[in-house]
Specification:
By secondary structure, the protein is mostly helical. It is built from 9 helices and 3 strands. The radius of gyration is 30 Å and the shape is elongated.
C-alpha cells in the first residue's frame, strides 16, 4: 500500500497527490473478504423494516423527518436490491446511487453518513491502480465497500421479528436426547479416539490422538509393571 501511495506522490509538486486517495483507504480486492458477510433476503428486509420504524418512532415533534431522513431510507431500499446475498458484495459508486435515486451528491453523502452514525451501514474506503506508467499518480480512489447491519437499539422496533422463533417442544426433546447420546458415546471412547472425535481428523486431532495413545500405553505399562511386582512379592 505504502509503495503505491509513494508512487502516487512521485512527480507531484511539493509532494501533493494529483489524484487524492483518502485516509484509511484499502486496496480494492484485498480487503473485502473479511468485511463482507453472507446474508439472505429475510435478514436484509429485517434491517430495512427496522430502519423505517426507527425513522418514524425516533422523529422528534415538529421535525419533518427522523434521525435517518428519507434519502437514507431510499439508499437502504436500493442497497437491499443490489447486495449479493451469497457473498455480501455491495459496492455501488456515489454516482451510481445518484443516478438510481435521482438525488444530489450532498443528499446521498448525508444519507450514507446518517445510516453509518445510527448503525445501519458501514463501509471501507478503497483505492485501485490508475494504470499509469512513469511519474503520474499510480492509485486513485474507487467506490466504497458497503455492509448492511442491524443495530441493537433498532431490534426492539421489530417486535417478534427481532427474536428467533421458539423451537417446538418435540424438536427440543429430540435435540436433548441426541446430545445425551453423543455425550454417552464420547465418554465410552479411549483418549486417542476421543481426541479425533472432539477435534476432527485433522493435523491437530491426529497430534492429540497420538498423545492420548502414548498416555494410554504408558498407563498400560505401569499397570503391567505393578502386577509383576505384586506377583514377585507374593512368591517371596
Amino acid at each position: 500500500m505504502f509503495e503505491q501511495i509513494g508512487a502516487a506522490l512521485a512527480g507531484a509538486p511539493n509532494g501533493r497527490v494529483r489524484t487524492p486517495v483518502r485516509r484509511q483507504s484499502r486496496a480494492r480486492g484485498h480487503c473485502e473478504a473479511v468485511f463482507w458477510r453472507r446474508t439472505d433476503r429475510q435478514q436484509v428486509q429485517r434491517i430495512l423494516l427496522a430502519a423505517k420504524r426507527y425513522e418514524r418512532v425516533e422523529r422528534q415533534p415538529g421535525e419533518r423527518s427522523g434521525p435517518l431522513g428519507p434519502v437514507a431510507i431510499e439508499i437502504l431500499e436500493l442497497f437491499a436490491n443490489l447486495v449479493n446475498f451469497k457473498t455480501g458484495r455491495l459496492e455501488p459508486s456515489i454516482d451510481t446511487i445518484m443516478v438510481k435515486l435521482r438525488r444530489s451528491r450532498d443528499a446521498i453523502v448525508r444519507g450514507l453518513k446518517n445510516l453509518r452514525i445510527h448503525g445501519f451501514l458501514d463501509w471501507l474506503r478503497r483505492y485501485e491502480p490508475t494504470g499509469n506508467e512513469g511519474r503520474g499518480p499510480q492509485v486513485k480512489q474507487t467506490s466504497n465497500a458497503y455492509r448492511l447491519s442491524l443495530p441493537e437499539r433498532a431490534k426492539r422496533f421489530l417486535g417478534r421479528l427481532g427474536m428467533p422463533p421458539p423451537l417446538p417442544e418435540d424438536h427440543a426433546q429430540a435435540l436433548a436426547e441426541r446430545l445425551a447420546a453423543i455425550e454417552e458415546h464420547r465418554a465410552s471412547l479411549m483418549l486417542d479416539d476421543r481426541a479425533l472425535f472432539d477435534v476432527g481428523d485433522n493435523p491437530l486431532g491426529q497430534a492429540l490422538a497420538r498423545l492420548g495413545k502414548s498416555m494410554k500405553q504408558r498407563e498400560s505399562a505401569r499397570r503391567t509393571e505393578s502386577q509383576s511386582r505384586s506377583i514377585i512379592n507374593r512368591q517371596e
